[in-house]
Fold each of these.
Amino acid sequence: MEGIQYFFNPQTVAVIGASSKPGKIGHECFKSMVRGNFKGKVYPINPSVPEVLGVKAYPSIGDVPENIDLVIYALPAKDSIEIFNQFKKKSVKAVIIISGGFREFSVNGVMLEEEVLKIARRDGFRVIGPNCVGVYDNFSGVDSLFQPYERLPRPRKGDISVVSQSGTFAVTFIDWASEENVGINKVVSVGNRADVDEAELIEFLDSDPNTKVIALYIESFTDGRKLVKSIKDCSKPVIVLLASKSSYGANVARSHTGRMASNYIIAKNVIESADAIITDDLQQFYDITKSVSLSKGFMGKNIVMVTNGAGPCVIAADLIQEYKLNLIEPSNTLKNTLREHLPSYAILNNPIDLTGSATSKDFLNAIRVCDNSEEVDIILLSIVFQDVPLEDDFVNQLAENKPKKPTFVFAAGGQYTREKFKILHRAKIPAFQNVGNLVKSISSIIELTGKGKLASTC
């Protein structure tokens, strides 16, 4: 794990290949570094221009007037050896290689990547990549992403850290988090993993006070035993999306990063035995990670559903049974208390169906009664935000009167509904457009709490 900290907390950064032309990868990497909240110095390296975005440019890293902690490399692979041999005299500690054209490209690319690694070990610097989007740290301001803010808004600060073999999935995670008002701490795209691998990053993030949950996307393995041990030893929840389920997927993975995939079933069983949560697809990967971030641990399995549109509750009920959770049968005492506070048309079973005539007051009264009932451990709200009787500011009222018990929201819809998610997430109430992901999130939180990976409210 030696030297990993310089990727996230450097004092000086050089962007090699920092073009003055918008749209070029080197330009966008440099722009991301200077546009964010990074407090250190950032030097553009470009022998062809005097400045980039108003910052003095230097012909080579050797011309920079001080030592460099972190290099972001965005030039062609063929130029890397000559340039990397200059790093020792500037005491470079870490290098992010954005460029492709290495192991994933050709036999010559494999040899080039191995030579880069020899130089790194000889001169004492660590490497993330090649063939990646690099590092995003919401707290230190390190941002090597070449996706501009206009296309990829950066999310608010949070406690999710993502480690991904796919730059695309890393960027998608950031985009969804930004859209839904979910906080992100760090995102690392590891690419070909010539040097720094997932195991080292998990160990580093386990000791990072800003990380609560680690999301890990895996296509293939360099050292499977080392990775599994890092997951097992990690004190924090690790949520995994494991790809390469078929021979077709394995072949694509090899083309993507130049690494062979392992047998999916074996890998899945071994990783699950290390107490990680395995997810089925990218959306579930994001949703479960989000829910763990927004939740405290809990062990109770008794669920009550409250709704103004009961259709999704049928699917939820099937899944609640599948995941061995408990859909309670409300007692007469609970029903009588609900009857005192709800309109006569409310159906007092499970779900508690407030019907399409439900108002904010109806929802809040039902939630309050359930929150005070010893029969209930978890409140699942299935909400049709589009229904007119439900006031527009219901989510604000719910956020202001957040239940004490774990509460999860399912709501399907478009932009209007997604805007409501932002308010719910700010209040640490997880919201979902997929009821299956909601129920699996509940099951996963209970599992993680039982394994000591998530602090319990009990």
Amino acid sequence: MPKVCIAIRHVLFENFGVFENPIRESGFDIEYFDVPIDDLDGNRYEITSRFMLLD
């Protein structure tokens, strides 16, 4: 199973910036969820390897 880093964004243009490449080079896929538009219900977070909140 691939390693996944889930990022929850409150502002749609935010991202990991200079940290994105090192995260990906460490073998993680990055998935962004946008609070204003994405469905954040469910148990998807139980299977993630990393969880980050961008504020």
Amino acid sequence: MRASRPRIFLPAIALLLMWVPPAHALTPGGLDPTFGQGGKVTALPKGAVGYAVHIDPHGRAITAGYTLGGHPDFVVARFLQNGTLDTTFGDHGRTVLDLGGADYAYALDLQADGRIVVAGESDVGGTSRIAVVRFNNNGRPDATFGGGDGFTLTSFGNQRQAANAVVLTPDGNIIVAGFTSAGTNARSAMIRYTPGGQLDRSFGGDGRVSFDLSSSDEQFEAIAWDGTNYVLAGYAEVSLTPEFSAASVTGSGKLNVQFSHDGFTTTNVTAGADLGYAMVRQPNGTIVVAGRVSNSGRDDWGVVRYLPSGALDTSWGGNGKVVTSFGKSFDVAYGIASQTNGKIVVVGRVHRRATGSDFGVVRYNTDGSVNLTFGMSGKAVTDFAGSDDGARDVIARPSNGKILVVGDATVNGVRRLALARYVP
């Protein structure tokens, strides 16, 4: 019996070392070990930035962003559920598309049939145009969209314009939101395209609308569809200082005056500059906006919640506003998602003096308090390779609640597209 013990004991130890606890047994806010290497993935080693992420009906992650190097181009990639690139998509898992300029993709959405719509800008010689591309679900540009090459470029006739956000409506229309500028102050802007990529002239007269929500600089950063109107968020300057903004626009392209009396509202979160970068509309119609707020010589995360009417929701943080600090540093919230239980997940860039910057994730309870059971006292900070990293977008999977975050991580001096997945 004694002689047989080593033959039984050693395999048991090996099995213990190989065993990975199920995600539900791990700490909420911890990295998911079933994804990539210890919950983290980097891709496109020649350089790329991830700006947006979505999950398709098969559970695969689709990301959009742009390549780095001498000539930025749109890049779309698809990852399997374990974090490896899906080699059936595009060119070994990703598609790089040159639109003829310096091309930057900032947003994506998925059609019900699996086709992928990506929006951003294309810049030639300092003059940019709003760029929208549709890809088939195999990663190739959709020749039925735009002029037959899968994309369309649109200008307001100004020097600069860009789409920061995109949403698809059930009728197949594609709506992008961002800004247009003649070279000085930016104006909030929207464009609506038909399912084929043509300007929808029933929107604003020629498919394009711009707004003056401030006396100086402004832009839309996020958009959603509430079934009747478009809900938008971003920032607008008040007395030359940016404030969070939220707006409602009708299907014809006019401000919805039922929202905050004149169709839009601005919110001063702190004494300094406040810039809203992300928004999620919750099932009850409340609108949650996250971004950067300047506070006492540092930048913190700000999260504001509005009622469907446009008024601040005072059940959130006591006055509709919550500020989260990671210390005396430059921290920015760029992405937001709502979980099925109503909790809010916000992601962004957290500066660390020793390692540069890292992915930051914070989860909030339904009243705006930090969810202390998540990560370390409600916060999770992830370093990839001891250098500069930052999160840009997040999605919480309805099926299992796992939190998928996209951004970029610097590895061996090169910024790469990066993903991290967290236990809910």
Amino acid sequence: MDMNVFRGIVALILLLLFVGLVIWVYGKKRKGLYEKAAYMAVEDDDGDSDPGARP
């Protein structure tokens, strides 16, 4: 097996892994999780996590 064939096979495997990861991350099953995470930073907390913060 030539070194260039080996490099091509490795590149193809990495490309397929990347495409699979993108499909998994942006799949419809995970949309709710990402929407919930998107609002975590702006949700109002009941507890006072930073006592020195202004109201």
